[in-house]
């Protein structure tokens, strides 16, 4: 069987603040979603817009970094792989969820962490452009 490739790159804005949890063994996992939109002109010349939401999951040290440094509305670059999980609910119905398992995250745009900063002036001289994790 030939070698495959599963790679996803998304640039968008966080739709909600990240949520961190810990596995029973203590491993951190952070989940959040990223929204993207694109616009184009149809054949009739009408302007169209499409919005796509991506569920993102980060594990280990990256999970802790995402939880500490990301906030709703912030622009980020996420690189990772797609994974679809399946489970059965209490009534026997199957459910599926496709997620981007993050392997790299770059903070774009405004990097102020509103959970820890007292004011935006605290970061006026901050030189963290292109911060990569």
Architecture overview:
- This protein has 133 residues and is mainly beta.
- It has a single domain (8-123), classed as Nucleic acid-binding proteins (OB fold (Dihydrolipoamide Acetyltransferase, E2P), Beta Barrel), CATH 2.40.50.
- It is 8% helix and 50% strand.
- It has one helix at residues 60-69; strands spanning 8-14, 19-22, 28-41, 47-59, 75-88, 94-108.
- It has a five-stranded mixed barrel with strand order 1-3-4-6-5.
- A hairpin with a 5-residue loop joins strand 2 (19-22) and strand 3 (28-41).
- The chain is globular, with a radius of gyration of 18 Å.
- Residues 113-131 have low confidence and may be disordered.
The number of helical elements comes to: 1
Q: What strand line-up does the widest sheet have?
A: 1-3-4-6-5
Task: State the helical fraction.
Answer: under 10%
Radius of gyration: 18 Å
CATH C-level name = Mainly Beta
- What is the number of E strands? 6
Structural descriptors:
133 residues; mainly beta; OB fold (Dihydrolipoamide Acetyltransferase, E2P); 1 helix; 6 strands
Gist?
The chain is built from one helix and six strands.
List the helices and strands and how they pair.
Blueprint (H helix, E strand, L loop, with lengths): L7 E7 L4 E4 L5 E14 L5 E13 H10 L5 E14 L5 E15 L25
Parallel strand pairs: 4-6
Antiparallel strand pairs: 1-3, 1-5, 2-3, 3-4, 5-6
């Amino acid at each position: 069987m030939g070698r495959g490739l599963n790679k996803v790159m998304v640039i968008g804005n966080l739709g909600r603040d990240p949520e961190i949890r810990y596995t029973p063994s203590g491993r951190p996992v952070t989940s959040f979603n990223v929204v993207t939109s694109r616009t184009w002109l149809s054949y009739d010349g009408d302007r169209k817009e499409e919005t796509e939401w991506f569920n993102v999951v980060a594990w280990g040290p990256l999970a802790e970094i995402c939880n500490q440094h990301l906030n709703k509305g912030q622009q980020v670059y996420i690189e990772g792989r797609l994974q679809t999980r399946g489970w059965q609910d209490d009534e026997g119905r199957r459910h599926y969820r496709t997620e981007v398992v993050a392997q790299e995250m770059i903070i774009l745009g405004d990097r102020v962490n509103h959970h820890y900063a007292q004011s935006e002036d605290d970061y006026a001289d901050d030189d963290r452009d292109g911060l990569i994790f």
